């Protein structure tokens, strides 16, 4: 299925409501690692209503710099 963030066909359902009610489902995109729940607001799950700044269509995921590592915890 289509990812709502990178708009590629790399998303799939990874979980659903355990009572079988289909009250919610969770999807994961294995290209951009976005995870979303079907019951979230349209501003999160509708590509037409999402903030364009957060979209990753036409972004090469491999070119994104790696975030700074988290320093070790203080003792
Ligand atoms: Zn994606």
Written description of the protein model:
With 75 residues, the protein is mainly β. The chain is built from one helix and three strands, in the order βββα. A hairpin with a 5-residue loop joins strand 2 (25-29) and strand 3. It is globular. It starts with 10 loop residues before the first strand and ends in a 30-residue tail after the last helix. The mean pLDDT is 93. The protein binds zinc ion. Zinc ion binds at residues 3, 5-6, 8, 10, 29, 31-32, 34.
Produce a short descriptive summary.
By secondary structure, this protein is mainly beta.
Q: What structural keywords apply?
A:
75 residues, mainly beta, 3-stranded antiparallel β-sheet, 1 helix, binds zinc ion
